[in-house]
TrEMBL record:
Keyword set includes Transmembrane helix: yes
Protein name, UniProt field: Oxalate/formate antiporter
Compartments in which it is found: Membrane
Annotated Pfam families: MFS_1 (PF07690)
Gene3D superfamilies for this protein: MFS general substrate transporter like domains
GO molecular function, one term: transmembrane transporter activity
Species: Fasciola hepatica (Liver fluke)
Domain of life, source organism: Eukaryota
Length: 463
């Protein structure tokens, strides 16, 4: 029993380290201006909006790779699957040293496609492998592991900024770009520096990961029977439910603010706060909220399930995003204080996306096929990434209000989808949140086959 507990804790810790390396993703908001200014200086002009395309490609290929990694995990040990993903992930970052000097399409391939694919290949399997060890605390375990992802910005943002801009050089007041040659020439090398750190973290994390003993053996020992309950349905059963598609659409719409905030928060800040080190510090504060928030959301899920916190998160997020562009009218210290508060709170809400959705997948469709099911739901990120890229074609210079209003509308539509999802784990005193489901049953089940099946836990066989 003690050995099992040690292996379980090591698996969670290994998952946290792997996710920490993947959390380098959240430095795109800090790194984006450096990439744009470097390419602009060397006559490879890139619009700031192009950084959103970079983020969109990362997330799209993460979504493509996730079910592939989950499928490979059925055939291979967890360490082999994650090792393949980490090799592609860190290799993509290293190769950006070369592609940055070629053009934006090259950066899109290495920093976007390769990094995103490698990240997705090991993302859901680390979560799935860890939650199997702690079936009664799935929300907390998911929160702890993806907190590592959120903490990536805390670790890598100061490394980037201190290496590239140690003197806190200011941007040009007219062009709003960096023009210092020494600073710009450090940008490509920074990818090699960070990639080396990432490789070291990933090697340690892979060594800690392990698969749980086969369920049949554990059952003979009288342990963990929860994991072999017959109601844990198949992926086919999940695909027959309306809840699957509502969650898919909601997640896809949530991607729009995820990508937009991660890519553009520093550009907004730089439009009225000309202090690069301060903005890097804001990025670190946002990463802290992103990381700690995931643990908090996970603990809330274990107490009241996923639907209520998901509704609260989306409604709060919509209000914060809609009001964010109005901060540019502030000046001095109040501007800095309010900017930190807004960005940090928005990233706290953002953190909920990556805890509440996998937990919802686990609750709705069971843990047996959790990696595959969540991998399929995560394909909504492809849909959301394309929408985000389209939304951000709204001209940003002088039009932050139009852009962020459109983003907040996406949160409202996501909320509308969530209220129709059935949540069987909601405590009895909070069952009011499932009232819309009664209307769904009244209106839709007569005509829609998938509305008659709510989740594999209570599958109703259809003729």
């Amino acid at each position: 029993m003690q050995r099992q507990l040690i292996l379980a804790c090591l698996c969670v810790l290994g998952g946290i380290l792997i996710q920490l390396s993947y959390g380098y993703f959240y430095t795109i908001g800090n790194m984006g201006p450096y990439i744009v200014d470097y390419m602009d200086y060397y006559n490879k002009t890139v619009n700031p909006n192009a950084i959103v395309w970079l983020t969109s490609v990362q997330i799209s290929f993460e979504a493509i790779a996730m079910p592939l990694g989950a499928w490979m995990h059925r055939k291979c040990p967890i360490r082999a699957v994650v090792a393949v993903g980490c090799l592609i992930h860190s290799g993509g970052i290293m190769l950006t040293f070369f592609t940055l000097k070629v053009g934006f399409l090259g950066v899109l391939f290495t920093y976007g496609l390769l990094q995103g694919f490698g990240m997705g290949f090991g993302y859901s399997v680390t979560i799935s492998a860890a939650t199997v060890w702690f079936p009664k605390h799935k929300g907390l375990v998911v929160g702890l592991i993806v907190a590592g992802f959120g903490a990536g910005g805390i670790l890598f943002t100061p490394i980037q900024t201190k290496y590239i801009n140690p003197e806190n050089t200011k941007v040009d007041n007219v062009t709003q770009h960096f023009t210092d040659l020494e600073l710009l020439n450090r940008v490509p090398i920074s990818f090699l520096v960070v990639a080396g750190i990432i490789v070291a973290i990933e090697l340690i994390g892979i060594a800690m990961l392990n698969d749980k003993t086969k369920q049949s053996e554990l059952d003979r020992e009288g342990r963990d029977k929860d994991e072999i309950r017959p109601e844990h349905g198949s992926t086919h059963q999940a695909l027959r439910t309306l809840d699957f598609y509502l969650l898919w659409i909601s997640l896809g719409l949530s991607v729009i603010p995820v990508i937009s905030l991660s890519s553009l928060y520093k550009f907004v800040g730089r439009s009225f706060l000309n202090d690069d080190l301060f903005l890097a510090g804001v990025g670190m504060a946002a990463s802290v909220c992103n990381s700690v928030g995931r643990i908090i959301w996970g603990m809330i899920c274990d107490r009241i399930s996923f639907k209520i916190p998901l509704c609260l998160m989306l409604s709060s997020w919509a209000i914060l995003i809609c009001t964010f562009p109005y901060l540019v009218v502030l000046t001095g210290t109040p501007a800095k204080v309010v900017y930190v508060l807004w960005v940090s709170t928005m990233f706290f809400c953002l953190s909920g996306v990556f805890v509440l959705n996998p937990t919802a997948t686990n609750i709705l469709f069971g843990s047996k096929n959790m990696a595959v099911n969540y991998g399929l739901i995560f394909t909504a990120f492809i849909f959301g990434s394309v929408l985000a890229a389209i939304v951000t074609t709204i001209p940003v210079r002088g039009n932050w209000i139009n852009l962020f209003t459109a983003i907040s509308v996406a949160c409202v539509f996501a909320l509308f989808c969530v209220i129709w999802i059935v949540d069987h784990k909601v405590p009895s005193r909070l069952q009011f949140i499932n009232f819309p489901v009664k209307l769904r049953a009244l209106w839709c089940q007569r005509v829609c086959r998938c509305c008659r099946v709510t989740s594999p836990e209570i599958v109703i066989e259809l003729p």
